[in-house]
Specification:
Bound molecules: zinc ion
Order of helices and strands: HHHEEEHEHEEEEHEEEHEHEHEHHH
Number of helices: 12
CATH superfamily of the largest domain: Zn peptidases
Shape: elongated
InterPro entries: Amidohydrolase (IPR017439), Bact_exopeptidase_dim_dom (IPR036264), Peptidase_M20 (IPR002933), Peptidase_M20/M20A_hydrolases (IPR052030), Peptidase_M20_dimer (IPR011650), Xaa-Arg_dipeptidase (IPR017144)
GO biological process, one term: folic acid catabolic process
Radius of gyration: 23 Å
Domain Peptidase M20 dimerisation: 172-259
CATH topology of the largest domain: Aminopeptidase
Distance between the termini: 51 Å
Family: Belongs to the peptidase M20A family.
Largest sheet: 6 strands, mixed
GO molecular function: dipeptidase activity; para-aminobenzoyl-glutamate hydrolase activity
C-alpha cells in the first residue's frame, strides 16, 4: 500500500518520536548556553547526517549549522529553524531543546515527500537566541535571502501562531569620573551619582513614550568601596518598542538625558550597543492562517490568533524581514508555568512535551506540504510579505 504524502508526514513524526525525544532529553541533560552549544550542535548535525541531509557545522557562527536537501528540481526553498540554546541556572527553561526536536522531526518528515514536488529543504540551526541572536548573524549573512518561507514552533502554555515581538536596542552607558577619598569628595567626581541620576532621568522618558514601549535597565557597576568616590559606573539598558525606528528614537532621548546628567556631575560618558539588537517581527497573516488550519486538522483547540501586542523580543524578527516567517506555539504545560523556569524545562521531557512535539512537527509538515502542493498559496504568502515590507 502506498502512503499519500500526508500520511507519510504524519507517520514519519509519530514513528520516530522516541528518537526525537531522545534528542530532547539529551539536550535537557546537557544544557549549553548561547554560543557554547558545541555538543548540542554535534548531536543535531549527527542526526541530520544520518537522515540524509548535507550538513555544515559552524555555519556562519561557531555553533550554527545547516542541513540541506536539494531535490535538484525547481521549486521553493523551505527553511525550518531549530533553536537549541539553554539559559544559565534553569537549563532548557525556554524549551529550545523541544524547538530543535520539532525542527528535526519536521525536516526528516518533509525530506521524505519533497522529491515528489521539487525544491529545496533547509534545516537551519540558529544558536544563541537568548543572548547573541544567531538568526541576526545568519540573516545579515544572507542565509534567508533566497528562502521562500521560514518556519518554527516554540513550546509554551498555549497553542498559537505567534505574532509581533518588540524591537530591542541594548545600550550600555559608562561613566568616567575621578576617584577620591570619601572624606575628600571635592577632589573627585562621582561616576555613581551620574549613573543614579541617569537612571532616574531615563525613567522619566516613559511617560512620554508611545504605547508598548519598554525601558528597563540595571546599575551594572556602582563602585567598590563606600569610602571611595566611584570613578567608574555603568548602566545596562534594554530599549524596546514596536519598531526599531522607535526604539532608536527613545534611545536618542535617553542619550540626551545622560549627556545632561554627565555634564551636571562633571563626568564623561560613553555609550555602546552591548548585545545583539533584535528587530521586531513582521507578521504574515496568510502563513498564520495556514498553520491554524493545520493545527485544527490535527485536533488542536484553543489556538490563539496572531498576537498583535508584543510580549518580548526574539531574533526571529531578523528573519521576518528577509522572508515570510512564522514562529508558532505549542502547548506543553498550563498557564501556571512561566517561561524561563525549571518547570518549563521539565515540561519539555514530559508526556505533554512529547505530544507537543508530535503535533507541532505534524502541523509544520502539513503546512509545508500545502505550500509544495499549491504554489498559488505560496505566491500569495510572498505577495503579502512584499506588500508589508513595502508599506514600512
Ligand atoms: Zn525561547
Amino acid at each position: 500500500m502506498t502512503l499519500t504524502a500526508k500520511e507519510t508526514l504524519l507517520q514519519s513524526v509519530e514513528n520516530n518520536v522516541d528518537a526525537y525525544m531522545h534528542l530532547v532529553q539529551t539536550m535537557y541533560d546537557n544544557p549549553e548556553i548561547g554560543n557554547e552549544e558545541f555538543e548540542t550542535m554535534a548531536l543535531l548535525v549527527d542526526y541530520l547526517d544520518k537522515a540524509g541531509f548535507k550538513t555544515t557545522s559552524g555555519y556562519i557562527v561557531p555553533t550554527g549549522f545547516i542541513g540541506e536537501y536539494d531535490t535538484g528540481k525547481p521549486g521553493p526553498t523551505i527553511a525550518v529553524m531549530c533553536e537549541f540554546d539553554a539559559l544559565p541556572e534553569v537549563g532548557h527553561g525556554c524549551g529550545h531543546n523541544l524547538i530543535a526536536g520539532i525542527g528535526i522531526a519536521t525536516g526528516e518528515a518533509v525530506k521524505k515527500i519533497i522529491d515528489q514536488f521539487g525544491g529545496k529543504l533547509l534545516v537551519v540551526g540558529t544558536p544563541a537566541e537568548e543572548n547573541f541572536g544567531g538568526k541576526v548573524s545568519m540573516s545579515d549573512a544572507g542565509v534567508f535571502d533566497d528562502v521562500d518561507v521560514a518556519l518554527m514552533v516554540h513550546p509554551g502554555s498555549h497553542n498559537g501562531v505567534g505574532g509581533r515581538s518588540s524591537a530591542l536596542n541594548p545600550i550600555k552607558f559608562e561613566f568616567f569620573g575621578k576617584t577620591a577619598h570619601g572624606c575628600m569628595p571635592q577632589a573627585g567626581a562621582s561616576a555613581l551619582d551620574a549613573a543614579v541620576m541617569s537612571y532616574l532621568q531615563i525613567n522619566l522618558i516613559r511617560q512620554f513614550s508611545n504605547q508598548h514601549t519598554y525601558i528597563h535597565g540595571v546599575i551594572k557597576d556602582g563602585g567598590e568601596a563606600a569610602n571611595v568616590i566611584p570613578g567608574y559606573a555603568s548602566l545596562e539598558y534594554y530599549f524596546r518598542a514596536p519598531t526599531m525606528a522607535y526604539a532608536k528614537e527613545i534611545t536618542a532621548k535617553a542619550m540626551t538625558a545622560v549627556e545632561g546628567v554627565a555634564l551636571a556631575n562633571g563626568v564623561t560618558f560613553k555609550s555602546s550597543v552591548y548585545e545583539c539588537p533584535y528587530d521586531d517581527t513582521v507578521v504574515n497573516y496568510l502563513l498564520a492562517d495556514l498553520l491554524t488550519e493545520k493545527y485544527e486538522e490535527l485536533g488542536l483547540t484553543d489556538i490563539q490568533p496572531v498576537d498583535e501586542v508584543a510580549k518580548g523580543s526574539t531574533d526571529v524578527g531578523a528573519v521576518s524581514y528577509k522572508c515570510p516567517t512564522i514562529q508558532g506555539f505549542i502547548k506543553i504545560c498550563g498557564p501556571e508555568v512561566g517561561a524561563h523556569t525549571v518547570e518549563m524545562a521539565d515540561a519539555t521531557i514530559s508526556p505533554d512535551g512529547k505530544n507537543g512535539l508530535i503535533k507541532a512537527a505534524q502541523g509544520l509538515s502539513l503546512s509545508i506540504l500545502e505550500l509544495l502542493e499549491k504554489p498559488e498559496k505560496l505566491a500569495a504568502i510572498k505577495q503579502e510579505f512584499d506588500e508589508t515590507i513595502a508599506s514600512m
